[in-house]
Design goal:
- It is a single chain.
- Helix content is about 85%, strand content about 0%.
- By secondary structure, the protein is mainly α.
- The protein has a single domain (about 20-210, about 225-435), classed as Growth Hormone, Chain: A, CATH 1.20.1250.20.
- The radius of gyration is 21 Å and the shape is globular.
Length: about 425
């Protein structure tokens, strides 16, 4: 790109994001990388939700248990790659592994189980649900670990909101394409599109600019060397750090609330739509609304809100929305309320909570950005799913309906709010000590 055109791009970007001249290329490649990751995932997501609805809410806890077991196996395998290979190489290896998995599912759905509702189709769908639940955690966690390793805390507070726009834009396009194409070409053929998008994300990683912090020879050399360390450092560092334990608890409370809302949404949609293509389309349309709202917020508000509110208040925003939303759902347990809460909660998560959480990791050691962070965002995340899933099943077994379960989530949201405030303040204290 020529110098005049670079200047014009910089001038346009400055209208929406506080980016400095030396950061433009890295920020834009990060934007593109996240776009391809989430567009590839959101082609798959409505397919997973359709499987969940067909399975039924009573059997979902078993699928969540299978997901936790799969994550338990995958986490040390990923850690082994982190120990052995440089960052860009182990990211590429991980993504290519998932692309190969997508192609296997395409072959199975096309040639082994082409008839919807057959025994083979049911079991392939359940395996696909477990696999996608692992896939989405790893590809997104790896992306944000790379971002936390690339940008300093001060840069993250300015730029992560805009970088997240790339993911939201990818989510909108992935959801819209899936909603449009699913009834026309069938769901298996969408897998090929997802594989192509993930491969484009790999190209972004391989062509990523040199690290922003490579100000001296030592930093520049470290980028091409394996991180090394212990295979089990992710677990051991989390259990020995109050800060990382706090992040883990915050994520568990987040996933518990998400799981409760997910089960209630699944139950309602299953009663309203009987056909798989119709379920896939309606799930994609909900995603389209969520991601469109997220996109507008991220472009114009996220970066400014994090700076204006401060990290502590930003971390408290989603818990507050959840507290109010679960109270409303307990009072009015109907589709309109659960759909509105799903949209507001997930849009708030993407637009403000996720960028805020990623900023938390900018002040931890580099090894923890990949190992501890990945352990938290995969195993701990799915453990939260398990707690939420079996907790929901237990409360239902006690005779509580949707109202009672929603009311039970209100005090958890309040504890979650207090923890978010503490984490935001602790990040500032750690960053100040490092500075």
């Amino acid at each position: 790109m020529s110098e005049p055109s670079t200047g014009r791009v910089y001038a346009m970007l400055r209208r929406t994001v506080d980016v400095r001249p030396g950061e433009v290329r890295t920020m834009l490649v990060s934007f593109a990388y996240f776009f391809f990751v989430l567009s590839g995932w959101f082609v798959l997501r409505p397919m997973r939700e359709a499987v969940a609805v067909a399975t039924g809410v009573n059997k979902l806890p078993f699928l969540f248990a299978g997901t936790l077991a799969a994550v338990l196996v995958a986490n040390p395998l990923f850690a082994a790659l982190v120990v052995r290979y440089p960052v860009r190489k182990f990211i590429a290896i991980t993504y290519h592994f998932f692309i190969a998995n997508i192609l296997v599912f395409y072959a199975l759905m096309t040639f082994v189980a082409p008839v919807e509702g057959s025994a083979a189709d049911v079991w392939i769908g359940r395996v696909f649900f477990v696999w996608t639940s692992v896939f989405n955690l790893f590809v997104v966690s790896i992306f944000w670990a790379f971002m936390a390793d690339t940008f300093r805390s001060e840069q993250a507070k300015r730029l992560f909101g805009f970088i997240a726009v790339g993911g939201s834009l990818g989510s909108v396009i992935g959801s819209a394409v899936t909603a449009e194409l699913a009834p026309r070409i069938g769901t298996p053929n969408l897998l090929l599109l997802s594989a192509t998008l993930i491969e484009l994300a790999v190209l972004c990683v391989l062509r990523f600019p040199a690290r922003q912090r490579a100000a001296d020879g030592e930093e520049a050399v470290r980028e091409d060397q394996p991180i090394g360390g212990s295979l089990w450092a992710g677990f051991s560092h989390v259990t020995s750090s109050p800060y990382l334990l706090g992040i883990s608890a915050f994520l568990i409370l987040l996933t518990m609330g998400s799981t409760i809302l997910y089960f209630e949404q699944t139950d309602i949609v299953g009663k309203a739509y009987a056909d798989r293509a119709a379920r896939t389309a309606v799930m994609a349309r909900i995603e389209l609304v969520v991601q469109s709202l997220t996109l507008v917020t991220q472009i114009f508000l996220t970066g400014r809100l994090i700076r204006w509110l401060g990290l502590a208040r930003s971390m408290a925003f989603l818990p507050l929305v959840s507290l109010i939303g679960f109270a409303a759902l307990g009072t009015w347990p109907v589709f309109a309320v659960v759909a509105a809460m799903a949209v507001l909660r997930r849009a708030g998560n993407f637009a403000l909570n996720n960028p805020s959480m990623e900023i938390l990791f900018t002040v931890v050691p580099r090894e923890d950005k990949y190992k501890a962070k990945n352990f938290i965002e995969t195993f701990v995340y799915r453990a939260g799913d398990q707690i939420g899933a079996w907790g929901y099943a237990g409360l239902a077994a006690l005779g509580l309906g949707m109202s009672g379960i929603a009311y039970a989530a209100v005090p958890l949201a309040f504890i979650w709010l207090l923890l978010g405030v503490w984490l935001g303040r602790e990040q500032g204290r750690i960053g100040a000590r490092q500075a």
